[in-house]
Design brief:
Layout lengths: L4 H21 L4 E6 L2 H16 L4 E6 L4 H7 L6 E5 L6 H9 L8 E5 L13 E4 L12 H12 L7 H10 L4 E3 L2 E3 L3 H11 L3 E7 L9 H6 L13 H10 L5 E2 L2 E2 L7 H17 L9 E7 L8 H13 L3 H8 L9 H26 E3 L4 E6 L7 H10 L8 E7 L3 E7 L2 H5 L4 H11 L3 E4 L3 E7 L3 H14 L20 H4 L14 H7 L2 H4 L5
Parallel strand pairs: 1-2, 1-3, 3-4, 4-5, 13-14
Antiparallel strand pairs: 6-7, 8-11, 9-10, 12-13, 14-15, 15-17, 16-17
Helix pairs in contact: 1-5, 2-5, 2-6, 2-11, 2-12, 3-4, 5-6, 6-7, 6-11, 11-12, 11-13, 13-14, 16-17
Bound molecules: cytidine-5'-monophosphate (C5P) and zinc ion.
């Protein structure tokens, strides 16, 4: 390929502009469907603002997965323009067969703004598929990022929504290591420039600990798996003792201090102590504990972008996406409700993780190629992906792809699959595997290389597992030795890190990344609106 990344992005934006025109000129109600995770909710918030700005009538709903049943229900509605956000690419064929075939919904038009791996080909003139994959764009972008580009193409004023696109990207685990930095990169970084220049996000460097504003510091240290802090990670008492040893008080009147409460000096002392601990225990790159932190400037209580995405996930997963949208759009009644939502979300996930460890022996089945967690109805379908992500990241499972299966609504089984960065680096693609295996088992699946999901009829569980095993078998022998990591210099991106999360697309090391970053999105949308 001799075309540059810039030209490819340019072609994507052209297609986005066509979709934006279609939306702007559409005379009646627009039907929007979005994924119910943080990326999908951020996408929903962006489109809500953008369509409202254009004076459009629309109807928005959130779904845990875009299934045939959801699509079938759409055919009974009076709508004719269907917009799918943060899902849809895995259902290209079904969307065309169900909605866009001439005899189904007369003159229906579909627009997909997604970043998951596409399944099937676009053959209908009435479907506009907005996907970085179609243009071989290897730069990272989320569903909310795609929705943001669409909104920005509709109206330059929508630059104010870049903050939400960044929230979506972070929620989809799209930060990664670029050399010693932990940061956003690629198209996400271009969007970040809009978020910073519109004054919505302040970018800083800081310790890479979750919960700068809301989690007691000793717990932030205790729960820190990446970066790992020897003797401290995983042990609350040790975390408190560690802080005492370095002279940092973990209490404040009426409660505990969090990272944001520390003075600059104290933060430096803490960072030095963590690095020292990592050096003593021979951890690779002991100083890789810092990263970009993003402050949501206009938000009071939930200012940290990372923490904000957890709130959105909680709203989506606990069945209250409307509250998440209200929060995104700055509704002052939303933040006070968050503590309760977050507490029940944490409680459920905590119980799910405990349930896994307590029943590991009976739930976990190791087959030749994969690990299968038969959690049945012991773990809720809406939190199984968090539970399996946490268990998988803890590094306690054998080095095989893991598939968690739980009972879901309507006689279905929900599958949530994860694979390590090392397996992904060897070419494993869970999204493709689950798409094929779920189709064989009468269901639907898809996703990313390192994280994928599926829904299948409960009766076909064995068929699914056999099919997964067959596919994994056909990919060849037992996991090969882990390849050498790509050298971590500021200009190379460590691909293992990129594919760890739900929202990553791979980038090749030879691509001229810095060129794409130089001008920002102005290159594509013109400078007159800046
Ligand atoms: O549900 P879970 O979080 O385990 O799914 C992992 C990833 O796979 C998510 O990004 C989800 O959007 C994606 N997925 C998909 N198609 C499906 C099921 C899940 O793209 N049918
Ligand atoms: Zn997403």
């Amino acid at each position: 390929m001799d075309e540059t990344e810039i030209a490819r992005v340019g072609r994507l934006i052209k297609r986005i502009q066509r979709a934006a025109d279609t939306l702007r000129h559409f005379p009646s109600r627009i039907r929007v469907l979005a994924h119910n995770d943080s990326d999908g909710l951020a996408s929903g918030a962006i489109i809500t603002k953008a369509l409202t700005r254009e004076g459009k009538e629309f109807q928005l709903s959130f779904h845990k997965q875009l299934t045939k049943a959801v699509l079938h229900d759409l055919t009974t509605e009076p709508n004719r323009l269907f917009l799918f956000l943060d899902f849809g690419s895995g259902m290209i064929t079904t969307i065309q067969e169900t909605l866009l075939a001439r005899d189904r919904v007369p003159s229906a038009v579909g627009i997909i703004a997604d970043h998951h791996l596409p399944q099937g080909d676009v053959y209908s003139e009435n479907l506009i598929h907005l996907s970085p994959h179609d243009f071989d764009i290897t730069e990272n972008i989320s569903g909310a990022g795609m929705t943001y580009l669409l909104a920005r193409a509709m109206n330059p004023e929508n630059r104010e929504l870049a903050e939400l696109a960044i929230i979506g990207a972070i929620g989809d685990s799209q930060m990664g290591s670029v050399g010693p930095d932990w940061t956003l990169f690629g198209l996400n970084k271009e969007i970040l420039k809009d978020a910073v220049s519109t004054g919505k996000i302040r970018q800083d460097k800081g310790l890479r600990l979750w919960g700068r504003y809301t989690r007691p510091l000793h717990r932030a240290l205790q729960y820190s798996v990446d970066p790992y802090i020897p003797e401290v990670s995983g042990n609350e008492d040790h975390a408190i003792a560690f802080l005492q040893e370095i002279g940092i008080d973990h209490r404040k009147p009426g409660g505990f201090r969090c990272l944001a409460d520390l003075s600059e000096d104290e933060q430096r002392t803490l960072a030095d102590a963590i690095i020292k601990e990592r050096v003593t225990k021979n951890i690779d790159h002991p100083d890789h504990i810092f990263g970009d932190v993003y402050d949501l400037v206009e938000r009071d209580e939930y200012r940290d972008a990372n923490e904000f995405t957890t709130l959105l996930n909680a709203c989506g997963k606990l069945g209250n996406p409307g509250l998440g949208i209200a929060l995104c759009l700055g509704d002052p009644t939303a933040p006070p409700l968050m503590k309760k939502v977050l507490a029940s979300y944490r409680k459920e996930i905590g119980e799910g993780i405990r349930c896994f460890y307590a029943n590991q022996e009976t739930l976990l089945l190791e087959r030749d190629k994969g690990l299968y967690v038969h959690a049945r109805d012991l773990i809720g379908e809406h939190i199984i992906s968090n539970v399996i992500s946490t268990v998988h990241k803890a590094g306690v499972l054998p080095e095989k792809p893991v598939f968690a299966l739980v009972h879901a609504a309507d006689g279905a089984i929900k599958v949530s699959a994860r694979a390590s960065e090392a397996l992904v680096a060897q070419g494993l693609n869970l999204g493709k595997i689950l798409a094929a295996a779920a189709a064989k088992a009468g269901g639907e699946g898809g996703g990313h290389r390192g994280a994928a999901g599926a829904l299948i009829p409960i009766a076909n569980e064995h068929m699914l597992i056999n099919s997964i095993e067959e596919i994994l078998m056909s990919l060849g022998g037992s996991p090969k030795p882990v390849p050498e990591p790509i050298a971590a210099t500021p200009d190379t991106y460590d691909r293992r890190k990129q594919d760890r999360g739900e929202g990553s697309t791979p980038r090749e090391e030879s691509r001229p990344r810095q060129k794409v970053e130089r001008k920002g999105l102005v290159r594509y949308f013109g400078a007159e609106d800046v």
